[in-house]
Amino acid sequence: MKLYSYWRSTTSYRVRIALALKGVVFDTVPVDLVAGDQRTEAYLGVNPIAGVPSLMLDDGTVLTQSMAILEWIEQAYPTPALIPADPVQAAQVRAAALIMATDVHPVNNLKVVQQLKAMGHSQDEGIAWMQDWMTRGLTAFDAVIPGGDFSFGSAPSLADICLVAQLYNAHRWGVDLTPYPRLTEIEARCLALPAFDAARPENQPDAG
């Protein structure tokens, strides 16, 4: 199994965490987004949207889009469960995860920020843009989780995976996290686990 990944990609980070939690062995194939590797003809043959992650299974099947990959991982490797069996609880976990994955990340990813710069916005304006969307998302996430040791009870879930990956970006871009003590406490508990630690951006083979 091969994971096409970029070390700072939060979407790749999500998938690395899930694979590590499930104990799934995989090889990392670095795709340097800053250098433009994602737009090469070779990589477009793997993922036509020119993004990461892409997960190539042992039979050559390629899965794309991090949330779809995470759902596949959950079904293919059900233990430990990252989504509750109860349908209402499952919907609540998915909803919290999607705040990070669909309301925050898409407007903050590299190609959006590059487009803002191409339209004449400064670096500071781009950072303010990202900080604003992350603050909105973190505020909403904090409001919908019941809490516990993790976002939903005593074990990490899909919601925690998406939260930790997004908090990496929040730290990177200087978001004020003092209003979110619950979230940073959850982050610390997650990162103390070997699977989350192994998946950290700085622990990847292409980290630079």
What is the strand and helix layout of this fold?
Elements: E1 2-5, H1 10-22, E2 27-30, H2 41-44, E3 54-56, E4 62-64, H3 66-76, H4 87-104, H5 110-118, H6 123-144, H7 158-172, H8 181-191, H9 194-199
Parallel strand pairs: 1-2
Antiparallel strand pairs: 1-3, 3-4
Explained architecture:
- The protein is α+β, with helices and mostly antiparallel strands and 208 residues long.
- It is 52% helix and 7% strand.
- It has nine helices and four strands, in the order βαβαββααααααα.
- The longest helix has 22 residues.
- It is globular.
- The mean pLDDT is 94.
- Its EC number is 5.2.1.2.
- This is Maleylacetoacetate isomerase.
What would you say about this model in short?
With 208 residues, the chain is α+β, with helices and mostly antiparallel strands. The chain has helices at residues 10-22, 41-44, 66-76, 87-104, 110-118, 123-144, 158-172, 181-191, 194-199; strands at 2-5, 27-30, 54-56, 62-64.
H/E order of the elements?
EHEHEEHHHHHHH
Between the first and last Cα atoms, what is the distance in angstroms? 24 Å
Derived from helix and strand composition plus strand pairing, the structural class reads alpha+beta
Largest sheet: 4 strands, mixed
DSSP, total strands? 4
Shape: globular
User: What proportion of the residues form beta strands (DSSP E)?
Assistant: 5-15%
So how many helices?
Answer: 9
Cα Rg = 17 Å
Q: Tell me the domain tally.
A: 2
> Averaging pLDDT over every residue, what do you get?
94
CATH topology of the largest domain: Glutathione S-transferase Yfyf (Class Pi), Chain A, domain 2
User: Which consecutive residue ranges, at least 5 long each, have pLDDT under 50?
Assistant: none
State the helicity in percent bands. 40-55%
Question: In CATH, what is the class of the largest domain?
Answer: Mainly Alpha
Q: Which architecture of the largest domain would the CATH scheme give at its second level?
A: Up-down Bundle
Please list the strands of the largest sheet in the order they lie side by side: 2-1-3-4
Keywords: Isomerase
Enzyme class: isomerase
Family: Belongs to the GST superfamily. Zeta family.
Pfam families: GST_C_2 (PF13410), GST_N (PF02798)
